[in-house]
Every structure is written in C-alpha cells, then in structure tokens.
C-alpha cells in the first residue's frame, strides 16, 4: 500500500441540474462523507443536517460574506455557511481527487484561519500529509492547535509532526507534562511513543522518551519500562532493551508482555539468561500460552529440540483440546529438521481437522482453512524428504481460500522445477490466473526462479525484461531482474534497476541491502556500500540478512571487531550457512582458525550443500 492517502472514490462529486441554488447544491453535495483512506490519522465529516443548521432558514445566504467566526470553549464555531465557503471546500476536495494535494491543503488552511474552524485545519493537514508535504502539515497542525488549544488530538498531532521534522527542543518536557496530566497513564505512554515514532534518529527518540518517563510519575510502571524497551530495541540497543524489559518484569513478575520482551530482546545479548528467566516465569504462569510458545521456538532455534518439545507437550497435557499445539509440534520438528516427527504431528493435526470439518455443515468451523494450512505445511515436509509427487498431491487438496489455492499452484510449479520437469512447471505458471498486479508479479518472479534454478537464466531475464517494459512500476520485477543480472556479474544493469526500485520505494530495505552487498562482496566502493547498508539496517534493524551484509562490509573495511559483533547477532537470529561462512572468515582473518573451522562445520551440518560455505572452505583449504 502507498504511504500516501488516497481519496475515497465513492465520494466523487456528480453535478446536478442548474435549477438548484448554489448553496443548496453545495449543501447536498457535502452531505456525503468526504474521507481520506485509513492510512490517514483522522477524517473530517460533513453531514447535511449539520450544514443545514449552520446555514439557517434563508437558503444559505449569509448576512455578511466576511463575518468573523469565533471558537466557543469546547464547541465547534458557529460558522455561517456561505456559498463562498462551500465553494472553497468543494474545490479543495475536487483538487485532492485530482491529486493536487498542495492546492487542496492551501485552500482549506486559508479557510481554517479565516473561519477558526478546527475541522478545516485538520482536513488541510490530511491533504498535506497525503501529498508528502511535512512542512505544510506541521503548519496546519499549529493552526489547528491555535484554534483548539484544549484538543488533545491537536496537541499530540503537533508534537508528532514537530518531532518528525526534527524540532525536538522541549519535547521531552512536553511529553512528561502530558503523561503526568493524563488520567489514563498507559494510553498517555502509548501516545508519547507514537509521537516519537516518525523520528529518523531512533537514538534521539529513545533519549527523549527516557527523559520524559524518568522525570514523570509513571517511571516505575511496567508499561513505561516496556515502552522504553521497545524504543531502545528500535534504536538498535538490545542491551538497554533487555535491561528495561527486566525492570518491567521485576515490577510485575506475572506480566506476559514483560516476559515476552525479555526473551525477544535478550536473545542477542544474554540468550541463556533470558531463557532461564522466562522458563522460571512459565513455571509461575503455566497458562501463559504465548510466552511458552515463544520459549519453545527459541529453544528449537538453538538446537534444544527435546526441551522445546517438552514445553509444548506440557502445554498439551494442560489443554488437551488445544489442537493447534499439534501443528506447533510439527513446526518445531521441522525447524529442527526432524522430518519424520514433523510428518507424524501434522498427520495427527490433519486427522483432527478432517473430523471437525465432517462433523458439521460447510463453513460451520475454521477446519477448512486449517486444513489448507496443514496441507501446505505437509507438502513442505514431503519436499524435504524427497517425496515430490506426494507433496504435489497434497497441494491439489487445497480448495479454500482462493489466495491459498493460488499459493499452492505456485508451489506445485516449484516442485516440478525441482524434479527437472521445467516445461511442465512453466506451463503451470503460464496457466495461472492472478487476480491483481501483486499476484501477477508473484507468477513472474516464481517463473524466473524456476528458470534460474534450471540454469536457463537468459530465458528468465528475457521474460522479466518484457514484464519490466510492459509494467515499469513493478518493484518486485525490477528487483528480481536485478538479482539475475548480479548473478551474471552484470553489476551496471543490476545497480540501475536497484536504484529504480529505491526511487519507487525509498523504504525498500532489501534494495539498499542488495546493492550494498554487491559492492561489498566485490570489495569496491566500500564507503558507498556502507551508506547503503546502514540505510537498509535503519529500515529493517532486526533483519539477519541485512546484519550479515553490514557485518561483511565492516570486514571488507578492516573493522574486524565490529564485523564479529554484527555477524554474531545475525547468526544468533538466523544460524544459517551463508552467515556462518562470513563469520568464520572474519575469525580466520583474526587468527582464530580453530573457531572458524568449527563454525564452518556447524554451518555444513545445517546445510550441507551451501555454495557460499563450500566455496569459502575450499578457498581456505578446509576439508568438510
């Protein structure tokens, strides 16, 4: 979805016969809701009844076209709805529908100052935001605040836009005062976080929130410490995030939210300690389902499969009717590559859901959707153990919902590709009937992946080139085409396309990452690569693949300590062979060859044929 708001097309103006008086016509037109899409913060509504009350009995003819309107305390202004005012409002709405948000915002901003109507100020703000005009939106928010100084929404909006514009002087004290004044402290804390969320400098945002909370009356509330934990994590400071989460858990030892944060934020800085704390929590709170599932997942990620399964089996003993736990056991087994266990548990889940589905009329339960999910999962397990035809058959059982059927068709094509039946795979994809542009992109990208894996890269490029020419605004087509060019070592074409993706979507973290990594891996333009990868990390700070790229460019630049720190974080989050290859090479460069060998062999145990890892070990003369 676009970051900009779109005008609701259902409110498009339709002109009526000329026999209507001007003000009557405008009043009837404005009886409809004139709303921005859900992406906007607020929406102004005008109703025929409200407008009729404002116009009075004289058909909307004002005593004075320039009458001064004053705002009464806690009331809307007694606006005389003249033909001029109505004309300007309608002109602004039409301008916005045509995409001219600046003109729409300017018109209503001027009208808001003239009439002192907060609704118009707020509406002008929406138009400025829809057009990406932060300066105009900030000015409109200040007009709104001057008109309605006691309106909490106006106050919070002005603070948030000021913070986004980098105007942070006095912001901590303003937030503290709002928190202390509020009778709903948790809501006030959430509002403070929202105010700071648009700031680009996340470290500064954390400092402001920390100052506001630690000087306020809520500094010891668990909700306040959790807000600080979340803000610290978003700034990249996992150590501080864990410390704040631990304070929250200490303040409320039974808080599931606090326990979940301790586990999530602690995995990269004190994994064993975090898991021990949360294990103790689950003993106190055995019904804390969400936290127990998170703990089981982390145990499985770290290779402690039997402990993870014991956690879920304990939950199942306490709640034998919680059939979803069968699916969870299957997922944990798959994560540990225990494929036979995974199949056993998913078979049990499918049997239960089949009985549920047959026990009542169609649509009486969610068993149909649950079965679709289960068939998709079992197909993946069957693929892993080489039973491709059985996996294909499972995917044919998926009938509901339509998006699941489409996804199953894509998987069937991939399976045929793995079997070497490339033409059959391409035929499946060519016969697919995508419902929208996004689905069409999925078909194109899946086709290119099937062809690429079959070493038919030229054919994949030809298809994506044609698609890019036909639909030049598709980010996924451009991105995948760039990856094919990069694979062919055609960096100029790959870079051209990735920069086009960034122009189309300035927050496309993986485009920044792909370009930055391509430069770093070739050991060229490293300063530029670092800028690109820092931007990718800012947009997706918890993405392990972006961490891997950032650690790799640090290594290329000779900053081994930073490289180790970043790559270790990536490997903890995603212990995959590619990351093991990079981290091991840094260890080797530091002279710790035994550590490098051990890590590489650990990576091979996870993914025996990984090309990056195999090539790295071969380059350093290390036997598998």
Automatic annotation (TrEMBL):
The record's annotation in SMART domains points to: TPR
- Which GO molecular function annotations are given, in alphabetical order? identical protein binding
Q: Per its UniProt entry, which superkingdom is the organism in?
A: Bacteria
Which species does the entry assign this protein to? Jezberella montanilacus
Query: Where are the bilayer-spanning segments?
Result: none
Its recorded name reads Flp pilus assembly protein TadD
InterPro entries from the UniProt entry: TPR-4 (IPR011717), TPR-like_helical_dom_sf (IPR011990), TPR_rpt (IPR019734)
């Amino acid at each position: 979805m676009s970051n900009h708001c779109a005008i609701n097309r259902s409110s498009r103006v339709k002109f009526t016969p000329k026999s209507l008086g001007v003000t009557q016509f405008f009043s009837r037109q404005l009886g409809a809701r004139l709303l921005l899409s859900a992406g906007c913060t607020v929406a102004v509504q005008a109703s025929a009844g409200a407008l009729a009350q404002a116009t009075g009995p004289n058909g909307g003819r004002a005593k004075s076209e320039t009458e001064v309107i004053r705002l009464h305390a806690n009331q809307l202004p007694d606006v005389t709805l003249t033909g001029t005012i109505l004309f300007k409002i309608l002109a602004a709405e039409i301008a916005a529908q045509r995409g001219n948000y600046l003109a729409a915002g300017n018109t209503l901003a001027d009208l808001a100052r003239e009439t002192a109507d907060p609704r118009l100020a707020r509406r002008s703000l929406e138009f400025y935001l829809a057009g990406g005009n932060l300066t105009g939106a900030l000015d409109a928010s200040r007009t709104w605040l001057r008109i309605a100084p006691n309106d909490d929404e106006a106050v919070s909006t002005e603070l948030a836009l000021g913070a986004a514009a980098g105007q942070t002087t006095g912001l901590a004290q303003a937030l503290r005062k709002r928190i202390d004044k509020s009778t709903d402290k948790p809501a006030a804390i959430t509002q403070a976080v929202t105010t700071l969320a648009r700031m680009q400098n996340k470290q500064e945002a954390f400092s402001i929130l920390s100052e506001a909370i630690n000087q306020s009356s809520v500094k010891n509330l668990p909700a306040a410490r959790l807000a600080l934990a979340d803000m610290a994590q978003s700034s990249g400071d996992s150590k501080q995030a864990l410390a704040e989460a631990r304070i929250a858990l200490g303040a409320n030892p039974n808080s599931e939210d606090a326990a979940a944060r301790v586990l999530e934020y602690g995995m990269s800085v004190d994994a064993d300690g975090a898991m021990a704390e949360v294990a103790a929590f689950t003993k106190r709170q055995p019904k804390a389902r969400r936290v127990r599932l998170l703990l089981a997942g982390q145990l499985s990620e770290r290779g402690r499969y039997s402990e993870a399964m014991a956690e879920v089996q304990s939950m199942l003993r306490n709640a034998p009717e919680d059939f979803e736990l069968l699916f969870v056991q299957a997922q944990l087994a798959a994560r540990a590559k225990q494929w036979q266990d995974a199949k056993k548990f998913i078979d049990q889940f499918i049997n239960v859901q089949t009985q549920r589905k047959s026990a009542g009329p169609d649509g009486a339960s969610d068993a149909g959707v649950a079965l679709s999910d289960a068939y998709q999962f079992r197909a993946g397990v069957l693929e892993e153990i080489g039973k491709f035809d059985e996996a294909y058959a499972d995917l044919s059982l998926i009938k509901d919902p339509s998006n699941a059927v489409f996804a199953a068709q894509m998987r069937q094509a991939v399976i045929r590709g793995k079997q070497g039946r490339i033409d059959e795979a391409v035929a499946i994809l060519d016969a697919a009937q995508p419902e929208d542009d996004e689905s069409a992109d999925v078909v194109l990208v899946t086709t290119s992946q099937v062809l690429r894996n079959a070493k038919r890269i030229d054919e994949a490029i030809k298809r994506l080139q044609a698609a890019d020419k036909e639909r030049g605004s598709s980010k996924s087509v451009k991105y995948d085409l760039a990856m094919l060019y990069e694979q062919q070592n055609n960096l100029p074409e790959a870079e051209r396309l990735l920069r086009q993706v960034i122009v189309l979507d300035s927050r496309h973290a993986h485009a920044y990452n792909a370009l930055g990594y391509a430069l770093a891996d070739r050991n060229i333009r490293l300063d530029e690569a670092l800028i690109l990868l820092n931007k990718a990390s800012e947009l997706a700070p918890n993405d392990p693949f972006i961490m891997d790229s950032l650690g790799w460019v640090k290594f290329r630049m000779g900053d081994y300590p930073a490289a180790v720190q970043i790559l270790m974080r990536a490997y903890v989050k995603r212990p995959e062979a590619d990351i093991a290859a990079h981290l091991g090479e840094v260890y080797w460069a530091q002279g710790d060859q035994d550590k490098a060998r051990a890590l590489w062999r650990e990576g091979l145990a996870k993914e025996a044929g990984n090309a990056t890892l195999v090539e790295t070990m071969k380059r350093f003369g290390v036997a598998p």
